[in-house]
Amino acid sequence: MKNVRIVDVLKSGQVGTEITVKGWVRTRRGSKNVNFIALNDGSTINNLQVVAEVEVFGEDFFKNINTGAAVGVTGKLVESGGSGQSVELQASALELIGAADPDKYPIQPKRHSLEFLREVAHLRPRTATFSAIFRIRHAMVFAIHNFFNDRGFYNVHTPIITSSDAEGAGEMFRITTLPAKDAPLNEEGNVDFTQDFFGKSANLTVSGQLEGELFAMALAKIYTFGPTFRAENSNTSRHLAEFWMIEPEVAFSDLNDNMDLAEDFLKYLIRYALDHCMDDLLFLSSRLVEEEKTKPADQRSMELIEKLKFVADNDFVRLTYTDAIEILKNSKPNKKGKFQYPITGYGTDLQSEHERFLVEQEFKKPVILTNYPKEIKSFYMRLDDNGETVAAMDVLFPQIGEIIGGSQREERLDVLERRMDEMNIPKDDMQWYLDTRRFGGCPHAGFGLGFERLLLFVTGMSNIRDVIPFARTPKNCEF
RNA sequence: UCCUUAGUAGCUCAGUUGGUUAGAGCGGCGGACUGUUAAUCCGUAGGUCGUAGGUUCAAGUCCUACCUGAGGAGCCA
């Protein structure tokens, strides 16, 4: 008999039919005559209740049907005699496929802290919380490709290994096949990378943007979706050394088009989650509500699903950096000296506390900040006519902060070269990039969305290590 | 990297001004129970108190260093 998935059984299973399901035991409750097994096969947050008579299988048989064990069950789907579920599986055959020693299996039917589960990240997808998160993660991957495909974008696989180190997006991981001990040295006494695998120094990519631009200059609308690596020593709940990023790049497009795209994109993804992952969202919401109860009333946040709907249904605030500075300068916390970094005027970089104030206090919705001073942004961002600001945009979300960073790119070769000189970007290594401006250059724009930060928002989780299967952070590279 | 804070049983924690044999709940195991929903009830095992030094008659408790986690900051996505 063919296996059926529990999600299908619970949704459309016909009472009276004979089925086989295979999955893992979440809990088993026994009494003298009958055992109840909560079975989960990963297809849904919900368990299927299996009812097994002690008389049929013998008392000893159940000793190995423990939490975590893999089992196969064949039986008849019947209306449930209990109140917790509408249908249940009356077992006629019960097979232990893989035992889980209850003395050693770390995940037991009790509350575990997220910190503990991070230490057993290889087993945590078997918990309700993490199975929900990773089903949602999958749904978001799918939605991202859908969104772009429907709008005529082409997916480009930009390189993971790169020799370009001019992106300035962060410290890079060097990759090499040279021996760690006694590496060959050149005349200056430095490691001689001409003898390395690629004949030059190579790194893991910190962004696919520059290569993405090359393809936007040919396919017009492209997006990348791949892993990104930053060797920054960042120890926060919002940073990973290895994370996934989505970077669309659009030819014949300006900053306004870019903002429209970013806002449409985020709303589409959130609506997709609401439309396709409601069971998992309801579960995550309820666990958040429990967690919130332990906090003081004024620190509680909006209920998850309500929050997602709110963002999907309301326009983002669009604000220039200069206007944001004015608002912050005249804000209560600034006047009362509540900011750790007081706002004095134009030119200061915005700190987390300022972004938080704008998003969570002033507007209470996502904010797109634009036109930052050129000094605090990257060389490739298009210089505005005032010569002072650049066509940059950051999308700020509540709790998470910057979820998207993007810009209209500098398409004027002379301006771009001047900016590279000012910011000490070596032009020699970047001729391939400058060629896009030399040959058929055009206005274009794009942005980068941190995939895990999106997942933080959608799942309501608060630590980024909990929305990626295996987190890589400083001092942590298990599995 | 900086600041704050924590590390005691498989997990979550308590452990008083330093003082005999370090406790609880959950989980596990054994038993009871006519259908349970994180079942319930009775019983039971389980600890080199993060590591290394130090102070002291005496250290889970005080001091120093290191390791690891968490929260915040910086950097950013």
Low-pLDDT windows of residues? none
CATH architecture of the largest domain: 2-Layer Sandwich
Strand pairing plus helix content: what structural class?
Answer: alpha+beta
In CATH's first tier, which class of the largest domain applies? Alpha Beta
Strand content: 15-25%
Strand order of the largest sheet: 6-10-11-16-15-14-13-12
Characterize the overall form. globular
User: Helix coverage percent of residues?
Assistant: 25-40%
Q: Helix and strand succession?
A: HEEEHEEHHEEEEHEEHHHEHHHEEEHHEH
Classified in CATH, the superfamily of the largest domain is: Bira Bifunctional Protein, Domain 2
- Radius of gyration computed on alpha carbons: 27 Å
User: The biggest beta sheet, please?
Assistant: 8 strands, mixed
Number of helices: 14
Q: Report the CATH topology name of the largest domain.
A: BirA Bifunctional Protein, domain 2
Determine the N-to-C terminus distance: 36 Å
Number of domains: 2
Q: What would the average pLDDT be, to the nearest integer?
A: 92
Word description of this protein:
With 479 residues, the chain is α+β, with helices and mostly antiparallel strands. The chain has two domains: 6-109, OB fold (Dihydrolipoamide Acetyltransferase, E2P); 128-170 and 206-316 and 365-466, Bira Bifunctional Protein, Domain 2 (BirA Bifunctional Protein, domain 2). 31% of the residues lie in helices and 22% in strands. It has 14 helices and 16 strands. It has helices spanning 6-12, 54-57, 114-119, 128-150, 209-219, 255-276, 278-292, 304-313, 321-329, 332-335, 352-362, 413-422, 431-438, 451-459; strands at 18-30, 34-40, 48-53, 70-79, 87-98, 154-155, 161-162, 174-175, 202-204, 221-229, 242-251, 317-320, 367-370, 392-397, 401-408, 444-450. The strands form three sheets. It has an eight-stranded mixed beta sheet. A hairpin with a 3-residue loop joins β14 and β15 (401-408). α4 crosses α7 and α6 (255-276) runs antiparallel to α8 (304-313). The two termini are 36 Å apart. The structure holds one RNA strand of 77 nucleotides.
